[in-house]
Structures are given as structure tokens and as C-alpha cells.
TrEMBL record:
<dbReference type="GO" id="GO:0080043">
    <property type="term" value="F:quercetin 3-O-glucosyltransferase activity"/>
</dbReference>
<protein>
    <recommendedName>
        <fullName>UDP-glycosyltransferases domain-containing protein</fullName>
    </recommendedName>
</protein>
<dbReference type="GO" id="GO:0080044">
    <property type="term" value="F:quercetin 7-O-glucosyltransferase activity"/>
</dbReference>
<keyword id="KW-0808">Transferase</keyword>
<comment type="similarity">
    <text>Belongs to the UDP-glycosyltransferase family.</text>
</comment>
Length: 461
């Protein structure tokens, strides 16, 4: 970080308070810092206190208020109530931060999570150029774009054929569009709110790879100044599947203190199934049991990240039994980038949250898609049918879960079945596309990032 006395180019980034969103934006902030900029990320105080924030490296963390700082749980409020409170308190916090920064280090660009359009209003009031940052894939954002444009009647009752998208069956749509609208009406407002005043921003940044979704990006570019900047994961992981060394300034999550990497180090290449359902999706207790028995029956080594809030959902003694035999390791949180970058991992059973999918694709790990809700079904459709990097587990619709036999079938199909060679070839292809995109600055994402910096800052190293 440049000394305060010097004037330097300063970018402020404001993420939506969720593990996925903050990981993506922190990694992008590190990317900007690697180009010589001063970057400040503004997590909410609540998130900072309750979430595993990856090591910020050269990025300054400046906590802001979401109106729940007095220990109240942001989760207790409804989505609307929370967003209203965050807009009021966050706007004040951001105003103060931008005024304070207006000294030696004028803010050249305000990058705000697309879920927080009010932050763009604050930036414009300060005369600062603004960029909306979309942390989900372009295909999902294009579905929402078409819904916003009135191309889709909600709740959706049958398969849809939309411009620049494959045919989407009801099971392939973001989960609240068909039936969930009654359960989660506020979520539709949250995702459509991303387009509020989008025509006023100077840039729209999408955490994806152009070559992964060219038609979708081209379509969105007909409406907005879209730049693809993904994957924002540290280049060291793309370049070398087993990045080691604590001196790696981009080391995303400190793997020190975690048993995962050492446990993987002594297992054969591509022999381990890694399982994680992200930071928010909540599989049912019955689903967790089916996954547990499926992993036991699949006969493969497995590493399973089971959040502490769900630890009582796996069979009593399961972790001890499989830990003792060396077949399986259950942890409450994994250094996921280090795990996916490890040669021992041969299959990723994922809920298809966008960050996890982007990480799995960027590191060339074949996947079993077990989507839970929101954008995950659409991402699962892309994993299996568009990118061909995995199989989507079939749900027992009556029981509303994936059964253990299906977990076994999918894991074996990905790791040794008739499609496994083709899946691995596709995974390698899309990994190379990600590497080329961010690699030497001439790729689609590298060029976008340098163009962004040169346009608003005095230099890009
Ligand atoms: C949420 C929504 O659930 C998802 O559908 C949407 O696409 C983004 O917002 P989340 O559930 O947190 O995302 O999943 P994901 O997008 O996969 O992000 C999880 C992040 O936590 C990833 O960056 C992953 O690397 C990290 N993680 C997860 C760990 O580091 N360790 C773990 O054990 C689990």
C-alpha cells in the first residue's frame, strides 16, 4: 500500500454481505492492487464478525454499517427490511468513507455489487465514476434481464425459449421463478433490482469468462457497457494447480491450520470426491443423510465441508468412522480454492453456487451438480448440457431430494464412467479458456481489467 503522504489511485469496492459475493469482490480488489492501485473493500461489520473473510492481502478492509451493528442479526430481518436498513445505513457510511478518502487518495472508481444499486447513487453524488459488479454468471443475469423486460410471465408455468439462452425447463430456471415466487417473493425484487438505474453506471463488470458465455455477454452488451473480468480467483491457482508457499500474496484462504491439504497430499491423483454446498444453501436433514450414505457407498475417498450449523444432520459417528479408516475427512470449512487446486481432487459435488462453479471450472475439476435453489438450477443446466463438465444429479421429485443411489451413480459416472473422459476433456478446455482470459493481459478478462484501470486511473502496471 502506498504511504498516505503520496497521492495514489484509489478504488473502493462495496460487496453484498454474503460469502460468495465478498470472495469474488475481494479477489477482484486484489487483482486491482496487483496493478498498483490502492483498493478498499467495505464489508458490513456484521459480515466481518460472522464470516470467514479470506486474507485481504494488500486490500484495505473498511467496515460499513448495514443498520444491524448493534448485534442484531441481519438475517432476522426480511429481505426487504434488511435491504432498506442497509440502504439507509450503508449510504451514510459510504458517504463518510468517500469524503474521508477525498484527501490524498481521491477515489477514481466506485465498484458496487449489483445487488446494491443505491451505492451507485452515492458514487454519482460524489462525482465518482461507478461500475456495477455482477457476481453471478451472465446466463442467469440474462434470464433476469428478460424477466425484467416482461418476456417471461412470473410465476413461470412451462419451459421457456428466451433470446441467447438454451431452452430452459422449469427445473432449469432460478428456483423462485416457477413455484418459489410465493415462498420467496422478495428475492425476485432483489435480483430485478440489479437493473435499477443500470443505464446510469459507467461500467458493468461480470465475474465470468467471455469464452464460457459469449452469446449471453454479446446480448447483454447490446444494452449495457459490459466487461467480463472473471475468474477473479488469484492467477497463481490457474497457472499452477498446486500453488504452495505461504509467500503467495494471492493466497486466497489461509490453508494453515486446516487439515485438508495435508490429508489430500497423501492421496492419489484424482482419487478424492470433494463436497460442499456453499455458505447459504441449506440442504434438508434427509438430503444430508442421503449424501452421507451415497459417499460411503461410492467407495471413493471424500472430503466434505459440512457447516457447523448442519453438523448434526450427518449420521452420528459418520465423521469418526470414515476419518478413522482414512476414507473420508469431514471439516466445517475448507480452504476451497486450495482443495480444488489440489491434484488429489477428482470430483466436486457442488450446489452450483456461482463462485464454487467458477472455481471448479477455472481449476478443471469435473462436477456433480446438486442445485438447491436461486440461480443454482440454471448453473447446473450449464454444467451438464452447455459446458459438459459434469453430470446433474436427478432429484426424486416426490421426496424432493437426491437419493444415495443417485449420488453413487453420478460420482462414478464422473470419475470412471463412459462420459468421464469427455467430461475431463471439457473441464480442461474451459480451464484453459479461463487461464487465457486472465493470463497475460491480452485475454478477454485481462484486457477488460487493464482498460478499466487505464480509463479511470492514471496508470496500470
Ligand atoms: C450464494 C448463493 O447461494 C449462490 O447460489 C449464488 O450464486 C452466489 O451467492 P454461496 O451459497 O455462498 O453463494 O455459494 P458460492 O457462490 O459457491 O460461494 C461460496 C464461497 O465460499 C466460494 O468462494 C467458496 O470457495 C467458499 N467456501 C465454501 C470455502 O472457502 N470453504 C467452504 O468450506 C465452502
Amino acid at each position: 500500500m502506498s504511504p498516505a503522504s503520496e497521492s495514489y489511485d484509489h478504488v473502493v469496492l462495496i460487496p453484498y454481505p454474503n460469502q460468495s459475493h465478498i470472495n469474488a469482490m475481494l479477489q477482484f480488489a486484489k487483482r486491482l492492487a496487483a496493478h498498483g492501485l490502492a483498493a478498499t473493500l467495505t464489508p458490513t461489520r456484521f459480515l466481518l464478525a460472522t464470516t470467514r473473510i479470506p486474507s485481504p492481502g494488500p486490500v484495505r478492509l473498511a467496515p460499513i454499517s448495514d443498520g444491524h451493528d448493534a448485534g442484531g442479526s441481519a438475517e432476522a430481518a426480511s429481505v426487504h427490511a434488511y435491504l432498506d436498513s442497509f440502504e439507509r445505513a450503508g449510504s451514510r457510511s459510504l458517504d463518510d468513507l468517500l469524503l474521508e478518502a477525498a484527501g490524498p487518495s481521491p477515489v477514481r472508481l466506485l465498484i458496487f455489487d449489483s445487488f446494491l444499486p443505491w451505492a451507485g447513487d452515492v458514487g454519482r453524488r460524489h462525482g465518482i465514476p461507478t461500475a456495477a459488479f455482477f457476481t453471478q454468471c451472465a446466463a442467469v443475469n440474462l434470464v433476469y434481464f428478460h424477466v425484467k423486460a416482461g418476456m417471461v410471465e412470473v410465476p413461470v408455468r412451462e419451459a421457456v425459449e428466451l433470446p441467447a439462452l438454451p431452452r430452459l425447463e422449469l427445473r432449469d430456471l432460478p428456483s423462485f421463478l416457477p413455484e418459489g415466487i410465493s415462498i420467496f417473493p422478495e428475492f425476485l425484487d432483489l435480483v430485478l433490482n440489479q437493473f435499477r438505474d443500470l443505464e446510469k453506471v459507467d461500467e458493468v463488470l461480470v465475474n465470468t469468462v467471455y469464452e464460457w458465455e459469449p452469446q449471453q455477454i454479446d446480448w447483454l452488451r447490446s444494452a449495457y457497457p459490459v466487461k467480463t473480468v472473471g475468474p477473479t480467483i488469484p492467477y497463481a491457482y490457474l497457472d499452477n494447480r498446486n500453488p504452495s508457499g505461504a509467500n503467495n500474496v494471492f493466497r486466497h484462504l489461509s490453508a494453515e491450520g486446516s487439515p485438508c491439504v495435508a490429508w489430500l497430499d497423501v492421496r492419489p491423483a484424482a482419487s478424492v470426491v470433494y463436497v460442499s454446498f456453499g455458505s447459504t444453501a441449506a440442504p434438508s436433514p434427509q438430503q444430508m443423510l442421503e449424501v452421507a450414505f451415497g459417499l460411503a457407498d461410492a467407495g471413493k475417498h471424500f472430503l466434505w465441508a459440512v457447516r457447523s450449523s448442519e453438523a448434526d444432520m450427518i449420521p452420528p459417528g459418520f465423521a469418526e468412522e470414515h476419518g478413522g479408516s482414512g476414507r473420508g475427512l469431514v471439516v466445517d470449512w475448507s480452504p476451497q480454492l486450495e482443495v480444488l487446486a489440489h491434484d488429489a481432487v477428482g470430483c466436486f459435488v457442488t450446489h452450483c453456487g456461482w463462485n464454487s462453479t467458477l472455481e471448479g471450472m477455472s481449476l478443471g475439476v469435473p462436477m456433480v451438480a446438486v442445485p438447491q435453489w436461486t440461480d443454482q438450477p440454471t448453473v447446473a443446466k450449464y454444467v451438464e448440457d452447455v459446458w459438459g463438465v459434469g453430470v446433474r444429479a436427478k432429484r426424486d421429485e416426490e421426496a424432493r431430494l437426491v437419493r444415495r443411489e443417485e449420488v453413487v451413480r453420478c460420482v462414478r459416472e464422473v470419475m470412471e464412467g463412459s462420459r468421464s473422459d469427455e467430461i475431463r476433456r471439457n473441464a480442461a478446455k474451459w480451464r484453459e479458456a479461463a487461464k487465457a482470459a486472465v493470463g497475460d493481459g491480452n485475454g478477454s478478462s485481462g484486457k477488460s481489467t487493464v482498460e478499466l484501470i487505464n480509463k479511470y486511473c492514471s496508470k496500470a502496471e
